[in-house]
Amino acid sequence: MQSSSETDSEKTYLIQKKQPMVNKYKEIRALLSLTFPLILENLAVVLFQSVNLVSLGHLGEEELAGCSLGSILWAISTMFPLGFVHALDAFISQAHGAKNERLVGVYVYQSYFIMIILAIPIAFLWYFSGSVMTALKQDHVVANYARKYLIWQMPGLVPFLFLSVIQECFQNLQIVIAPLVINLIGFGVNIFLNFGFVYGVFHLPKLGFIGSPIATSISEFIMFVLMYIYLKVKKIDKEWKLEKSVFNPLNLGPFLKVGLPIVFTMLIEELIYELTLFLAGAMGTIQMGVHTVLVNIDYLLYSIGLGFSVGVSTRIGYFLGSGDPISARLSTRCSYFIGFIIGAINSSIVISLRKHLGYIFSSSKTIINQVSQLAYYSAVHAFIDANYTTFEGIMRGIGSNVPGFLITFFGFLTISTTLSFVFFFETNLEVKGLWISIIVGISSSAIAVIFLFLRRVNWKKQSDIAVLRATHEWSSSSESESESESETETDEFISKSSTSSSTFSSESSENEDETENQDQDQDQEHLKVSNQSETSSLSSSTFSSESSETEDENEDENENQNQKIQQIISENDFENDNQNNTIINIDIENVNEKSDNLIDLNSDSSDSFV
Question: Which helix (H) or strand (E) holds 475?
Answer without folding.
Answer: none
